Every structure is written in structure tokens, then in C-alpha cells.
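Summarise this fold before class:
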Amino acid sequence: MTAPGGWCRHVIQCVAPATYAAYRSATIPTVVGIARYDPYMKVTKMSISMDPELGERVRLAAERAGQPLSKWIAGAVAARLRADSLAMFISDYEADHGAFTAHELAAARRELGLPAGEAPA
């Protein structure tokens, strides 16, 4: 059943819109704010292997972040893919236009608010 605004995305009992106002005014405590997967969201399930020490570090990192393990791993993979795409873009750009100069790199660091780095050798 749906609640106003579409599918419930929190751990609450979903009720028909006609009874939603009555449900919200009830004095029964509810658990809200715990996100869960939408039942219609498409996902790809994978099995991965890693050494036990790395696996424990990943579990601890996900726990510290307050995220389910799958969500934390998906975020880490997405970040790696973005970094790889940026590296490929920069490599292609420099192949077409030449390497960035020390001045261009310093200007980019300033604009991004990064600390000044040493000039490349």
C-alpha cells in the first residue's frame, strides 16, 4: 500500500492515503528514519572475496559510517570509478593538449582550496 507521496521508504507501517492522517495522529510510537531499499529498485548482487584483515577493516568502516556494508562498498566502488574516469580524462586531455604546467596546477589547487603542492619533477 502507499502513503502520501509514494512508496514508504522508512520502517513504518504503510497505510492507504485515506487512513494516513489517522495513523499519524495515533499515540503508538513508530520507528522512522531507517532507510531501506525500495522493493522495486533494481540491484545487481555480487559475491566478492578479500583477505580477512581487509574485510574486517571494511566492516568497521561501514559501521563507523552508519551504513549497511553493501551501501558502503557501493560508495567506495563509485568513488574509485569516478577517480579512474578523471584520471582517464586528464590523460586524454594531456595527450591532445600537452601536460599541465606547474602554473596551471597551482591555479587549480588554489581554486579547489587545496594546499600548495611541490612542483612536479
In short: The first helix runs from residue 17 to 25.
